[in-house]
Task: structure prediction
Amino acid sequence: MQPAVRDVLLVVKAGDGRAHDMAQTLLSRIEGLGALGRVVENRTDQEGCVEASCLVGSGPAPQLAVVLGGDGTMISVARKLSPLSVPLLGVNVGRLGFLTQLTSDDWMEALDRVVGKGFAVSRLIMLSCEVARDGRRIFKSEAVNDVVVRCSMARLIRVGVYFGGERFGGFRADGMVLSTPTGATAYSMSAGGPLVHPDLQVLTITPICPFLCDFRPMVLPTDRHLDMVVEEATSEVVLTCDGQATFQLSPGDWVRVRRSPHSLSLVTVGGHTYFSKLLDKGFIRER
Result:
């Protein structure tokens, strides 16, 4: 259990007027509870904001980061702050809001409790991704949801897949999605992957539109690395981490994915279980 909070960072979705207005309201509430707060705007990887320092500066890490935005903002902030183990509390001002714990209508009581009395933290696995070319590492990123290798156009690529150094096939498809349990409700599910409970320490690999092959989505342990190598491509191939960090691949490039030493740290506020979220957000429908 984390103690009562005295230092809060409010991270706001870039360019969102509603989120900025809410941040000022939350800031006043936080200061009224005797804590210190400050507001920063989240910027994207494409703008060069990939490190924790672009949010927290050179000072000490905050005890809590309140993120105002949607799931995309939560994921972006998590990748930056995970090396500092900063717990995140999300207030949804986006659309789906699967990762965010609160809404714009129900935040006050929970925020008072978290700041004034402390909170528990749920730690979920993340992935670490590296790209090697000619034996040299040329790209590295963390991922909260998924690592995706796919053709930038509607063309097939051939991807060789290795687990713990053992090759288990070369597959022709539009691409491959490698997902955490957190990301199972995102691109992975759209590609036909399974829903995975977030408490499990596993990853899934799901082909995107496989062609003339019987490769089915697989659930694998995280005690070994998984490698994907681009064996054939007739068009540009792109690697994405969470759909936000991107890198252009060439034939022969190796993509190595393993469990990250960092975790996605989410404040536990209660009231919303995993299964209730699946029902509320339409991932499971009763008939």
Remarks:
- Residues 205 and 218 are 5 Å apart (CA to CA).
- The chain has six helices and 17 strands.
- The two ends are 40 Å apart (CA to CA).
- The longest helix spans residues 17-32.
